Amino acid sequence: xxxxxxxxxxxxxxxxxxxxxxxxxxxxxxxxGLIARTESGYLTQSDQNLMMMADSxxxxxxxxxxxxxxxxxxxxNVSLEECDFGKGPGVLEGAYAELPRYFEDTGKVMDLETRLxxxxxxxxxxxxxxxxxxxxHGSDSDHMKLQTYIASQSSGYAWNPPMExxxxxxxxxxxxxxxxxxxxxxxxxxxxxxxxxxxRIRASVLPNKxxxxxxxxxxxxxxxxxxxxxxxxxxxxxRGCYWQMRxxxxxPGSDASIAMLSYWTDxxxxxxxxxxDMKR
Length: 280
Hints:
Elements: H1 2-19, H2 27-37, H3 47-52, H4 58-70, E1 101-103, E2 108-110, H5 112-122, H6 131-134, H7 142-152, H8 166-180, H9 190-194, E3 200-201, E4 204-205, H10 212-218, E5 223-225, E6 230-232, H11 234-244, H12 255-267, E7 277-279
Parallel strand pairs: 5-7
Antiparallel strand pairs: 1-2, 3-4, 5-6
């Protein structure tokens, strides 16, 4: 009877979390809801991370990012509150969950990083070579502070990148080709590690793209990496994956990198984002 009660409670928790998708949820609550809905060695492999998520250092990074977002900066002395991330100037709730997307003002499909660069340069007047724009790695960089704050406003929202413009579909389709294309001295593709359940790299269980509850956690970046003691971005993770496959690193902000992120996000469509996540 006790086991049955636990199973029923777990099911109810999962259904409640599923019903809440589309509104803000704390990252830990999102992850617990996913765990309640599915048996997954990937989602449950780190009890320590689960215990630490409520006090994740990424929260401090996001708080710093909020202050930077609202501060008038750059040669033009304006804030980023006039930047449109897809839902209108300054609207952040759910915006990150709908990136990458096509922007009329640039004629391009952009991810968070490239859109942020665009606004810092065109609105605030920074030069692409200014450290505020150029330095994009590590929790102490302006970029990671801003990206973490902007993304955190989509925690619990369902991934829903638009696929109405032909370029959005083209980028997603190009990313799919890249995901399954084997290359390099090891003849690896992304799918080599992420298309089956229970694959591992050493002690770490790898996420399966075909299990949506696993894949949403896999692509929920920015995330605090415990082993590196820094918050990292999607673009940083992408380059890390290519390094592990012993392939040439994608150029940050390139169409190729955004194509891969488009496919990643589309594959998690409908699942709640965990922002900011905590990873090994």
